[in-house]
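sorry for the late reply, my laptop died twice this morning and i had to redo everyting from scratch. anyway the thing you sent over, i finally got around to it. pasting the sequence first so we're on the same page, its 145 residues, then the predicted structure underneath. double check i copied it right bc i was rushing
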Amino acid sequence: MAADPTRLKEYECFKDLTDEQREAVSQFTLVEHFQPGHTMFEEGKEATHIFLLSVGEVEVLYSIGEEGPSRVDKVQSGEIIGCSALIEPYIYTSTTRSLTEVEVMVIEAAALRQLMVEDCALGFSIQKDLIRMLLDRIIDLRLGV
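ok and here's the structure:
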């Protein structure tokens, strides 16, 4: 079942879209629930989905050297994860694991990328907000926020 398109307004990358554009995105968006300890995606694997965190908290892990994955961040409700699914070569650059019970809206990345090509205004809006969001994350990581 498709997600409620009005819920997409809660996320930075989708807030400026028209109702019709959000409706189109919702057609390939599902709501899922995961228990604590569930791995949503793994570093180095094909990035097939974007996750909009509705409820809960997840940890972001990166492989650093030979020590294996290390936690570099915690992500809370209202954030978008799995952005690598919109950036070539479409490979996840981190691993995410739920710390609490979570609810996420899961967007099929290939369908969203195709929609972004077909509707350039939608594509530009999403890319603009995605770039701003990722730059903010880089600054936060540099400052240790």
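The two ends are 37 Å apart (CA to CA).
thats about all i looked at so far, will dig more tmrw
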